[in-house]
Structures are given as C-alpha cells and as structure tokens.
Amino acid sequence: MDKVLWVVSYTSVNQFLQRALAAKATAVAIRTDNNIAQALTPFHDAGLKVYGWRWPSAQSSNGAMAEANSAATLLIQGMDGYFADPEGEPGKPYDWNKPGLDQLANQFCTTIKSAAGAKPLGVTSHFLGKQRFAKLPWAAFFQHADILLPQAYWRVAQGPVHHANPAENYRDSIQAWVQTGGAREKIQPMAGELVHVSGHEIAQYAAEASNQGVSTLHFYADETGIDPGVWSAIAQA
After folding, report:
1. In sequence order, which residues have a C-beta less than 8 Å from that of residue 92 and are 6 or more positions away?
2. Contact 152, 170 (CB under 8 A)
C-alpha cells in the first residue's frame, strides 16, 4: 500500500522527513509555497517521492499560469508529480466555481503535463464534486488528470463532515466523483483532517480503501497537535 502524507507548511525539511519516515509514508505532497526544490534530494535519498500541490489562483496572467510554470520547473528539476486543488470561494481570486474558466483550466493542466511526461497530474477538491461546485470546470481538469483525489474528510476544524464516518464518506466520494465525470479507476479518496480524527478512524479509512480496491492512501495533513494514535494507525495502514 502506498501512502502519501500531505503538508501545508513545515518548520524544517528534516523534521517533516522524519515525520514521513516514522509514518512509513512512500511519498509526500508539499504545498508549492514551500521550498520544494530544497526538499527533493533529502526525500529522494530516503526513498520517498515528492509531489507538489496548490489551490491555484483562477486569475490567468499573474495567478494560475504563474503556478503552472513554477510547477513545470519543479517537475523538470525532479519533482515526482503535481496535484491541482481547484475549489470554490466566492469573491476570491482563487474561486474556480464560476463559468468561463475551461480554457484557463486546460492551459494550466497542459503546461504542467508538458513538463511532467509520465509523472502524474492529480486533481483534488470537495468530495461531493459538482454537487458542491456546480460551475467549476471539472471536465477540463479531469481530462488531463491521472489521479483523482476527492477530499473524503469526515471531521475538520468546523466539525463533522457529511456522515462523519470514514467508510461512508469514502464510498460517497467515489460515487460523487464518478457522477462528476471522473474515471472510477483513477479515484483515490483522501483522509482528514488528521488533527481532528482518531487512530481508529484512520484504520476504518484504510480498510475501506482495501475494500474498494484502492492501493494508495492520502493523509491530509501533517501539523502540530495530531494524536499519537493517529500516527501509529497511519504507520500500520
């Protein structure tokens, strides 16, 4: 079973590396406003893949394409793949849930794919897909994606999500993303948020992945305050 540990930011590369190794992760996903270039060698030397991820701006000139070009450069430098995170946020420059963004989404993904070669491009967003963000250019993102990553979180800072059940949310995320236009075999639902869940729930999440024939687990995200039982469950998953 492959395991990807996600992070928004970290205190030091080595600290995050040690955390990933202790969790028996096979890869990490680092938000691209960190110094990913600095992380490539130590993580690769330890046998871990390094992916970049970001909720990109939905503005073209100084936003989305700047991120796409940055990701392309990192892929050429040795980054192992990239995960785009288009979401909806009314009134914000990174709001993708509005009409007229298909061309930008295509350009964004094409730029990254041209540098990626055989390396994967993933897409992550709300686990209910078009049920939640009806105007987001799902088809444009999905046609380029190698991996689909619905955020099947069952508990976050604001409280329980959906059924607040790892297995049920996992199954519902697959159904929602297939209905949104995703290929079933590309879907790898994510667990989270780690600081708000229990080790027992992580075990339920991993068991449901096995039941659904999904061979990669995604854990969002490393931060301070995560229960030691959660880390143990991730290591055992």
Report:
1. none
2. yes
What is the residue whose two structure tokens read 């990626």?
116
| Cα 164 from Cα 53, distance rounded (Å) | 26
Q: For residue range 137-194, list pLDDT tens digits in order.
A: 999 999 999 999 999 999 999 999 999 999 999 999 999 999 999 999 999 999 999 9
* Predicted confidence (pLDDT) per residue in 66-80, tens digit: 999 999 999 999 999
Q: How far apart are CA 60 and CA 177, in angstroms?
A: 26
Residue 49 corresponds to which amino acid? K
The partner residues of 121 in beta bridges, in order of sequence, read: 82
Q: Please tell me the distance from the alpha carbon of residue 230 to that of residue 206, in angstroms, as a whole number.
A: 12
Strand partners, 206: none
Q: Is 113 helix (H, G, I), strand (E, B) or coil?
A: helix
pTM above 0.90? yes
Nearest residue to 65 via CA among 37, 113, 104: 104
